[in-house]
């Protein structure tokens, strides 16, 4: 959002206008959000039901990197699991404020169990994987295909840390997603610095200098009950480069000495990804309640 620096209208030359002290820019993040897609106000019962499956699946299913979210029960009945085709068809119909809440409260999400609050700076236009990931991560995700990437950037309450969180909607079936999950787990691909997601910098905001060199900590979770990969990457808002980024699983271990650990950036990446999924689950629960 541009700053308001319009001048006063010309006045009588014999009476110059009084001088006002300059206005200090606010440090609070200013949102410049792009809607993912327009959302129709009326939906058929079938579409609404499928949307509940999408949101519930995303909220309940997660990876080990973001906590105990992956509840993969092979014995579960097919009717209790969201259909992959429904998820692919409905990603563009979920309201942006459901996917990425404007404000996220992370009670106990900071170092030592401290509370955190994050404010959404902007939502990126939906797009392909090419611009969102480095070549090696693109290669690692290639077996499941990439239908669309959805991303948003958040700032913490002090505007000193920024985090990009996102979801990859894949083209894979359940078997392919399970294979990718196993590969990431067995080969520790989610902890390799050359497989970090890219950031979503936002000009004119606290995230303006959040680029590749500013990446400090990250998390990547491959889900299996829905064709989705969830990721988050965090860094400093002042644009300082980070020589040795560390995965969130390492940066959240008590006593860590890395820059990311001491600044709580591992908690930022992990906490925001975790809360985005939780918000989706709560939204699904509210939709199921009778009016």
Q: Key terms for this structure?
A:
alpha+beta, 7-stranded mixed beta sheet, 7 strands, single chain, disordered C terminus, disordered N terminus, 16% strand, 291 residues
List the helices and strands and how they pair.
Elements: H1 45-60, H2 84-90, H3 96-99, E1 103-106, E2 116-123, H4 135-141, E3 148-156, E4 161-169, H5 174-187, E5 217-222, E6 228-236, E7 246-247, H6 248-251, H7 259-263, H8 265-288
Parallel strand pairs: 5-7
Antiparallel strand pairs: 1-2, 2-3, 3-4, 4-6, 5-6
Short account of what is shown:
Helices cover 28% and strands 16% of the residues. The protein has 8 helices and 7 strands; from the N terminus they run αααββαββαβββααα.
Provide structural commentary.
The chain is of the alpha+beta class. The chain has one domain. Helix content is 28%, strand content 16%. It has eight helices and seven strands; from the N terminus they run H-H-H-E-E-H-E-E-H-E-E-E-H-H-H. Strands 1-2-3-4-6-5-7 form a seven-stranded mixed β-sheet. A hairpin with a 5-residue loop joins strand 5 (217-222) and strand 6 (228-236). Helix 1 packs antiparallel against helix 8. The longest helix is centred in the last third of the chain and has 24 residues, at 265-288. The radius of gyration is 21 Å and the shape is globular. The two termini are 39 Å apart. Residues 1-26, 38-81 and 283-291 have low confidence and may be disordered.
